[in-house]
Design goal:
- With 525 residues, this protein is an alpha+beta fold.
- The chain is built from 15 helices and 19 strands.
- The protein has four domains: 74 residues, Serine Threonine Protein Phosphatase 5, Tetratricopeptide repeat, CATH 1.25.40; 150 residues, no CATH class; 85 residues, Sandwich (Tumour Suppressor Smad4); 99 residues, Tumour Suppressor Smad4 (Sandwich), CATH 2.60.200.
- It is 48% helix and 19% strand.
- The chain has a 15-stranded mixed β-sheet that branches. Strands 13-12-14-15 form a four-stranded mixed β-sheet, with no helix packed on it.
- α4 packs antiparallel against α5, α5 runs antiparallel to α6 and α8 runs antiparallel to α9.
- It is elongated.
Length: 525
């Protein structure tokens, strides 16, 4: 029986089936036989030769396996020990090379994500052609460059037709995809100059609202432009003066308007406003110093609170009992509401600057509850001076890295777990509002597709620069809050409850709204 086993091993060795021969020769009986010992010597030599060939081909795993089999059969032979040393050195070198390639690709990704496409592509040129990660990054860099160039062309076309708002949005989109180049800087300088001139003319005509809206978008491109800063200050002074008038502080309003007039001397309406507030202040003082001013306070009629005071006190306005059907604009917009848009799904809109996200059954009760494992952490996203910061007590995944805090940028991938992922987006660089897209995370309301962290406005319209993308709308519409009411700014016809409506009246809760071809409803969340 032993001789038969040895003969079978010899046949396997002769046919090149070394692994089979190793199994047959592994028994102690074979190793104790003289013919078996001769067989094992030949088999060990063939294993070392095959391991050397594997090592030369770069197959370190196979080379190490042959070396182990040779040492198991023949012991620590010098040839086997030398082969094992060379295999270990090759594995170590391979690991070091892999780490270097990994660091190179990681650095290239950081450059590409920050718009430094040329630097990222230069690093990727040294990466192996068969690297999957490097190939994906090369594709991403090329796509970003293509999108940036297309946005730059659209910005130039918008500037040529004097559509400054569209030019600003497209240029900011180009900048988001690629770090600023000479062409981009030249176009930005020309756009800032032209848009600031248009805004100044609009302010002189009295359209401070239009000028302020454009200047707010333009500010990220202005780079500290004196003209833009002065015009923004004029708009801020006008808002302060209007607020003072609403509080009855007419003398104070006159002082503020005189400062604005000094910065914009060609605006005749500012001089008229200064004169009117002066006359109104004098008239009010005359009334207060007359017989009415002698009445005790208890007999004086309590004045109706101003909307700004009502909003500051966070209490709903008092409705007259003789007015059974109050206007829709009388209510104050809640801090969170649902925006349901035809063709774009539902969005949960949050107005607070600090919002927590986490499992709905968590003991910490997050503001936005997700259908997720109760053991997952609760994270907080806070808006401060236009930036968004994520903080967590335990590490969470952001772009496949575990961190407890990060300054969020457009495109960041947030993972509370592999099955609970969100994507952070800043669709419009001119707006401080952000969007959290629910990649694999889910809210109890299954129809909600995104969470909007509202700063000043929510933009609806075609293209990726809108917070709510509605390509069938044709042009952009902006939702914003003023005096506790949700208003809409657009060049489209507005109907509320199937009746023509005044945009200044505000969008009511729970009633169907039609904005051109777009239908929407705003409800409490």
């Amino acid at each position: 029986m032993l001789i038969l086993q040895i003969k079978q091993a010899e046949c396997a060795l002769a046919d090149g089936r070394l692994d089979e021969a190793c199994e047959l020769a592994a028994g102690k009986d074979v190793q104790g036989h003289r013919r078996g010992q001769r067989l094992i010597g030949q088999l060990v030599q063939r294993l070392i030769e095959r391991g050397t060939e594997h090592l030369a081909a770069g197959h370190t795993r196979e080379a190490l396996a042959d070396c182990d089999k040779a040492m198991k059969l023949g012991g620590n032979l010098p040839e086997a020990v030398e082969l094992r040393r060379r295999v270990a050195e090759a594995i170590s070198q391979k690991r070091r090379s892999g780490h270097r390639r990994g660091d190179l690709v990681t650095t290239a990704r950081e450059h590409i994500e920050n718009g430094r496409l040329s630097l990222g592509e230069g690093l990727l040129a040294d990466a192996p052609d068969d690297s999957v990660r490097a190939g994906l990054l090369r594709h991403e860099a090329a796509a970003r460059r293509s999108r940036a160039e297309a946005a730059l062309k659209r910005a130039q076309a918008a500037l040529d037709r004097s559509d400054y708002a569209a030019a600003v949005d497209e240029l900011l989109t180009a900048r988001a995809h690629r770090a600023e180049s000479d062409d981009m800087a030249d176009l930005a300088a020309r756009l800032v100059c032209a848009a600031a001139g248009w805004a100044r003319e609009e302010m002189i005509r009295g359209r401070v609202d239009l000028a302020a809206s454009l200047l707010g978008r333009l500010k990220p491109l202005a780079g500290g432009s004196r003209d833009v800063e002065d015009l923004l200050r004029v708009a801020a002074e006008c808002r302060r003066a209007w607020s003072a008038i609403g509080r009855g502080e007419l003398r104070r309003a006159g002082e503020i308007l005189r400062r604005a007039r000094a910065m914009l001397p060609k605006a005749q309406w500012l001089q008229q406003a200064v004169d009117s507030t002066g006359r109104a202040a004098q008239a009010l003082e005359d009334i207060r110093s007359g017989p009415l001013g002698m009445l005790p306070e208890s007999q004086a009629e309590t004045r109706e609170p101003h909307p700004e005071e009502t909003l500051a006190a966070e209490s709903p306005p008092v409705l007259s009992p003789v007015e059974p059907d109050p206007p829709a604009s009388a209510g104050i917009l809640p801090g969170r509401f649902l925006l349901q848009v035809d063709g774009a799904g539902s969005s949960l809109v949050l107005r607070e600057p600090r919002v927590s996200f986490g499992p709905i059954s968590s003991s910490r009760r997050p503001e936005v509850g997700l259908l997720a494992d109760p053991a997952l952490p609760v994270v907080t996203i806070e808006r401060a001076e236009g930036d968004y910061f994520l903080r967590a007590e335990t590490p969470v995944g952001i772009n496949d890295r575990m961190v407890t805090g990060k300054l969020l940028v457009d495109g960041d991938r947030i993972a509370l777990s592999p099955r609970c992922r969100l994507r952070f987006r800043l669709p419009n660089a001119a707006s401080g509002s952000a969007v959290l897209e629910l990649s694999t995370a889910r809210l109890p309301q299954a129809d909600i597709r995104r969470v909007i962290l509202m700063d000043r406005e929510v933009i609806m319209g075609p293209g990726p620069a809108a917070h709510v993308r509605a390509d069938h709308l044709g042009e952009r519409a902006v939702l914003y809050v003023r005096d506790g009411r949700l208003l809409c700014r657009a060049r489209l016809d507005l109907t509320i409850d199937h009746k023509p409506a005044d945009p200044s009246a505000g969008i009511p809760l729970g009633k169907p709204v039609r904005l051109g071809p777009l239908g929407l409803v705003v409800t409490r969340a």
